[in-house]
Specification:
CATH class of the largest domain: Alpha Beta
Number of domains: 3
Helix content: 25-40%
Distance between the termini: 47 Å
Oligomer: single chain
Largest sheet: 3 strands, antiparallel
Strand order of the largest sheet: 1-3-2
Number of helices: 6
Number of strands: 9
CATH architecture of the largest domain: 2-Layer Sandwich
Order of helices and strands: EHEEHEEHHEHEHEE
Shape: elongated
């Protein structure tokens, strides 16, 4: 549960200040008075607590997004473990929301990931998939990873893959993490960041 403590002279302004500091909607904040100081000029030590589940906040944000766009959507939220949340979405406009090479979907995930993490005191992994695009993409990436790794292991020559986003790089890192003959490393900056599969020293 995310929370902060601070001192303030007016309890009426506590939620607004907490919302500004925590960058979340003040409707999701509860204020508890920890200490009251002073007789004439009062000062309050308060605790601001986020009283909404981060995963639920993400679900509500997605629902409102599609409602505002007047797009029919089915949203399934799943907690994979304590730090990983998955949203699987099917809409009447899947191609539009996925975008060319998944760029629009990537932007939606970036927004939801940042929003969900603003309600949590620990870093959460947030996955958003629309129309099974990422599930299919994951299978493709795992095939590429396996084929490339076999070639690197055989030839002992490293292979540089094309630039990928963080999610796609993580898929390949994970797929090859237990291989004895090869290792993976990320190189480059920004949109040029890519993976290199290297042979391990024997």
């Amino acid at each position: 549960m995310r929370k902060i403590e601070f001192e303030i002279k007016s309890l009426g302004a506590a939620k607004l200040l907490a919302a500004k500091e925590m960058r979340i909607n003040q409707d999701y904040i509860t204020i508890n008075v920890l200490e009251k100081k002073g007789m004439i000029i009062k000062t309050y030590k308060v605790e601001a607590i986020v009283d909404v589940d981060p995963a639920d906040a993400g679900y509500k944000a997605l629902k409102e997004m599609f409602e505002n766009m007047q797009i029919e959507a089915q949203i399934e939220m799943r907690r994979i473990n304590d730090i990983e949340i998955s949203y699987t979405i099917n809409t009447s406009e899947n191609p539009l929301l996925i975008g060319k090479n998944g760029k629009t979907l990537e932007s939606i995930q970036f927004y939801i990931r940042n929003l969900v993490n603003s309600y949590s005191d620990e870093r959460l992994i947030v996955l958003v998939d629309i129309g099974g695009y990422k599930a299919n993409r994951k299978k493709q990436l795992e095939i590429i990873a396996t084929k490339t790794a076999k070639s690197v292991a055989r030839t002992r020559i490293e292979a540089k893959l094309k630039p990928m986003n963080a999610y796609e790089r993580r898929v390949i890192h994970t797929k090859l993490s237990e291989w004895r003959d090869v290792s993976t490393i990320s190189e480059g900056e920004g949109q040029e960041r890519h993976l290199v599969i290297k042979p391990k020293r024997r």
